[in-house]
Amino acid sequence: MPSTNQIIINTSPLIALVAAMGDLKILESLYTDVLVPFEVYQEILIGGTTGFAIAEFQSASWLQKQSSPLTISPLLFNSLDLGEASVIQLALNKNISTVCIDEAVGRRIARLSGLSVTGSIGILLRAKREGYPLSIKTAIQKMLNHNIRLSQTVIDFAIKEAGESS
User: Fold this and answer.
1) Is residue 166 part of a domain?
2) What is the largest CA-CA distance in the chain?
């Protein structure tokens, strides 16, 4: 059974978790090691149009932010955005079995690369199962309020899985 103490995380889930929870402490409570590829670190610092989540990301000193760019395989580089490609490449390089990616194509390629995949909703559900005090409905609403895109299928699944169906 692969260890679920280590995870490599992409940009979108980092931003989604800050939107849902207000910080990244949930990751610290679930994982011994949370690695952030250099490429993801750069994407976060650029901050999109709003700069959302930069302060929370920088204050999470326990995150293992990689200090140098990766050499990414041409297959990953040509198939995915830089963040997703770097998450999968770092996982393969460091023999870490679990990655956190929200985008469908990145998730598919991670699985084809032999990796276990979770996403921002998967992390929230695991936290709830392990006793972290949170409402999945509230977390999802906060994500939607910050323009995090979630399909109705994912929302319905998460609420049902969390036992929060009405």
Assistant:
1) no
2) 48
In Å, how far from its chain's centre is CA 112? 18
In three state form, how does the secondary structure of 147-160 look? Answer: CCCCCHHHHHHHHH
Using CA atoms, how far apart are residues 98 and 13, in angstroms rounded to an integer? 14
Q: What is the CATH number of the domain that holds 46?
A: 3.40.50.1010
Task: Answer whether residue 134 is part of any domain.
Answer: yes
The string of pLDDT tens digits covering residues 97-127 is 999 999 999 999 999 999 999 999 999 999 9
Q: What is the reported pLDDT for 46? A: 87
Q: Is residue 22 assigned to a domain?
A: yes
The total number of structural domains that make up the chain: 1
pTM of the shown model = 0.94
H helix intervals, 8-103:
11-21, 25-30, 38-46, 54-59, 74-79, 82-94
Q: Is residue 54 part of a domain?
A: yes
The DSSP code for 132 is: -
Task: Return the pLDDT at 4.
Answer: 64
All residue ranges of the chain with pLDDT < 50 are 1-3
Are 46 and 20 in contact by the 8 Å Cβ rule? The answer is no
Q: What is the span of the domain harbouring residue 66?
A: 6-161
